[in-house]
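User: I'll paste a sequence; please echo it back and then give the predicted structure.

Assistant: Echoing your sequence first, then the prediction.
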Amino acid sequence: MKTKLIKIFAAATLALGVSSAWAQGVIHQGEVIDTMNGGGYTYVQVKEADKTYWAAGPQVEVVKGDNVEMSEQMWMTDFKSSSLDRTFDEIMFVGHIIKK
């Protein structure tokens, strides 16, 4: 359900032309500790400086050990991914995941 709401919200945002503000979000860089794909998204657990967190964005090919760059869009708590049958305590949704 949350995944559908996110897709609807993203489509509405694009339709309103607000996506450019999100595209200019905070840039994060780090090493992929874990990764999985589901529902058209890539989920990556990233170690950035002294913190580790999960992020999700459009599906891309990454593997453990890759260095990635991501543009922050929004954080969610207690996010349930139905495609992975998993709940993330906290996850950052991003506009892109680029392998560096």
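The longest helix spans residues 2-16. Strands lie at 27-38, 41-48, 51-58, 67-81, 86-99.
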